[in-house]
Design a protein that fits this description.
Distance between the termini: 26 Å
CATH topology of the largest domain: Thrombin, subunit H
Structural class: mainly beta
Helix content: 10-25%
CATH class of the largest domain: Mainly Beta
Oligomer: single chain
Amino acid sequence: MNLLGVKLTLLIGRTVPVPVPLPMMENLDTVEVTQSDTGQSGFQITFKAGRSGPIDILDYQLLGNPLLMPHNRAVIIVTLNAIPRVLMDGIILDRQLNPSTKPGASTITLSGKDVSIMMDKEQKPVERLAQNEFVAALMIIAQYAQYGLIPMVMPPFMIDFPLPMERTPVQRATDLQHLQNLAGRFGYVFYIKPGPAPLMNTAYWGPPVRVGIPKKALSVNLGGDTNVERLDFRHDAKQASTFYGKVHDRNLNQHLPFETFASLRIPPLALFPAVPFDLLNVRRTLLDNVEGLNYAQAFAKAQAETDKSMDSVLTATGELDTARYGDLLEARGLVGLRGAGFSYDGFYYVQSVSHSISTNGAYKQRFTLTREGVGSTTPVVPVL
């Protein structure tokens, strides 16, 4: 399907997704994809479902199509500026029928999550003998190679190797929950990003990505160069917090104090982050639940909580028209912003993006951007 110079390709299938037949694509109404930097991304595909001929006497014809059954795999590809982008590679989990008294107004809606949902099907106890968090993440991801997972696992800045004579880590959750729990110890994230090619996915376990080539700048209040339809900012200083405490290190058999003073996210996106520029007003929080941890683990947990508390001190939410913007925002990436003034211009981390594609010719992107404070760290941002 082509609209506004955008080509939409839809693949669905039980084992290997295949292109949706033309008659079904002609009934396509809307496609929505929501990408988030944490948790699972989701999608909704809506088809028009009329009943107008002898074949539809018993039931809606589309309901009998095996491609629209739950548990099928769905791949959504958008080609913009001659470059294909995989927006979603996921599993259909829910099918809704919405009958209407108006002819041709009935709809069938398919909803689902990205392929990480297949990691969340079984809660199981597993002994991770001599496996630290880094190794355990690699071992779990390797079990799902049938979904084209490419592991991208970043080692934590502090690694504690579990010696079998001392302890054996045990998993008591689903694979997805366990990966997220392991990542949370270091302020890391786990997610599955579709691409770089159809039927391939990148399984990322590591710190939030704040490096790379920024997207084309979002422009506001710049006359004919404005490409954002709506933009709102919120500076929430109470989000920032440092953490401190004391832990009994089992290796040294001593009580050792620990404390954090700033976010270690690299690179910093704000010229004046809440910490250390407003350290006197930042909340100082006692870190609980450190029993049984050594000093390295306790400090890593405190630093993880500090990093997360700083991430969303400044939040920008808005909406843009894709045809005017000429590009696709990507969650977990960077984008520049201009026209809002020195305090709010500069680079931002893209926390989430919702793509809404309609066959009536509309393609909107709703987004949430974050960073650790105010002030631009650069005089210019890329505009092309």
